[in-house]
Amino acid sequence: MTDTTDALTQTIVLELSAVTGTDPLDLPPLYDAVDLDALKTLVEGCDGAEVQFSAVDCDVTVRGPNDVTVTPAGDRATATAGADSDGESAVQPTFQD
Predict the structure, then answer these.
(1) How far is Cα 88 from Cα 80, in angstroms, rounded to an integer?
(2) Quick one: which H or E segment has residue 16?
(3) Rg (CA), the chain
(4) Among residues 7, 57, 73, 80, which one has the fewest Cβ atoms lying within 10 Å of its Cβ?
(5) pLDDT tens for residues 28-82?
(6) 53: number of CA atoms within 13 Å, CB side?
(7) Do the beta carbons of residue 43 and residue 64 sit within 8 Å?
(8) What local confidence, expressed as pLDDT, does residue 83 receive?
(9) How many CA atoms lie within 13 Å of 30's alpha carbon, on the beta-carbon side?
């Protein structure tokens, strides 16, 4: 894996950790949920690409190397690490009609 893949992996793991309340080291390996090299290639190689997958009972959306959204399946809390963020997780409520 390259440094970019490692950074993207770290961002996803930290967001999953924030949403699930699980220590990052206690999460299952991310490569069990998604091919990380393919994810990096898609996200970096295709402008406007959006990749979605499930991991740790969460829906993960990746729009860029620093644009990751994690939403618990069936829950309303969302953690987002965006290009404008400083890497801190922001838990934001979402509402459904």
Answers:
(1) 9
(2) helix 3-20
(3) 13
(4) 73
(5) 999 999 999 999 888 888 778 899 999 999 999 999 878 999 999 876 555 566 5
(6) 17
(7) yes
(8) 46
(9) 23
Range 16-23, long-range pairs (CB < 8 A, 24+ positions) = 16/55, 16/56, 16/58, 16/60, 16/70, 18/70, 18/79, 18/89, 18/91, 19/58, 19/70, 19/71, 19/72, 19/77, 19/78, 19/79, 19/89, 19/91, 20/56, 20/57, 20/58, 20/72, 22/56
In this structure, the number of other CB atoms found within 10 A of the CB of residue 49 comes to 14
pLDDT attached to residue 45: 81
Q: In the prediction, which pLDDT does 93 show?
A: 38
Rounded to 5 degrees, φ, ψ at 61 are: -120, 125
Burial class of residue 92 in the structure, from the number of CB atoms within 10 Å of its CB (0-12 exposed, 13-18 middle, 19+ buried): exposed
